[in-house]
Design brief:
single chain, 195 residues, alpha+beta, five-stranded mixed beta sheet, two-stranded antiparallel ribbon, 7 helices, 7 strands
Length: 195
C-alpha cells in the first residue's frame, strides 16, 4: 500500500503535541517503547480525519450517469469507523443507504466513499447520518434518500456507563421515503440475509 504524504508542518506540530501529552500523563516520550509513538499517533490522526480534505459531493458527481431507472438502489452493510467528537474515541458499525433515482445514478462505490469521507472526521452519529443523506440528495436530486446507521460507541463501552453490547441506530430520509410503505421496504431489505 502506498505511503500517504502528510503536510510536514502539521505532522511535526501534532507529533510535538503528542510528546507533550505523554509527559502530562506521567510517561517518558524517550522511553524505548514510546520513541516513535508521537509520530505514529500524529500520522494515525491525520489518516482518521482525512475526510476534512475531501468533497463528498464531488465524489458522487465524479461518477454521475444519466439513467432512466426509478426504483430503489440500496448499498447496505457499508463498514465504517469514526471518532466521537466528545471523547475522540472510536465508534464503528454499518451504514445502509437507499435512493430512488430521478434521471441520474452514481457509481455504487461512490456511496461507500461518501460514507468514508464523512466518517473520517470528528463526528456524532446523528450528524453523520444527516450529512450522508443531504450529500446524496444534493448531488443526485433523487426521488428520495434514506440512510440508516448502526454503531457501537467506545465512549459508552470503555468509559462512563461501560455498556458493552449497546448499539445506537439513527436514520434520516427524504422524498419518497416519507411514505411508511417505502421505508418499511427498505428496512426489510437491509435486514434480510443475502448472498
Amino acid at each position: 500500500m502506498e505511503e500517504k504524504t502528510f503536510n510536514p508542518e502539521t505532522l511535526a506540530s501534532l507529533q510535538s503535541n503528542y510528546e507533550h501529552i505523554l509527559r502530562l500523563l506521567g510517561e517518558d516520550p524517550q522511553r524505548e517503547g514510546l520513541l516513535k509513538t508521537p509520530y505514529r499517533v500524529a500520522k494515525a490522526m491525520l489518516t482518521l480525519t482525512r475526510g476534512y480534505n475531501e468533497d463528498p459531493q464531488a465524489i458522487l458527481n465524479s461518477a454521475k450517469f444519466k439513467e432512466d431507472y426509478r426504483h430503489m438502489v440500496i448499498v447496505k452493510d457499508i463498514d465504517f469507523f469514526s471518532l466521537c467528537e466528545h471523547h475522540m474515541l472510536p465508534f464503528y458499525g454499518k451504514v445502509h443507504v437507499a435512493y430512488i433515482p430521478n434521471g441520474y445514478i452514481t457509481g455504487l462505490s461512490k456511496i461507500a466513499r461518501v460514507v468514508d469521507s464523512f466518517s473520517h472526521r470528528l463526528q456524532v452519529q446523528e450528524r453523520m447520518t444527516l450529512q450522508i443523506k443531504e450529500c446524496i440528495q444534493n448531488a443526485l436530486n433523487p426521488l428520495g434518500v434514506m440512510v440508516v446507521v448502526e454503531a457501537r460507541h467506545m465512549c459508552m463501552q470503555m468509559r462512563g456507563v461501560e455498556k458493552q453490547n449497546s448499539i445506537t441506530t439513527t436514520s434520516d430520509f427524504t422524498g419518497a421515503f416519507n411514505q411508511a410503505k417505502t421505508r418499511e421496504e427498505f428496512l426489510d431489505l437491509i435486514h434480510r440475509q443475502t448472498i
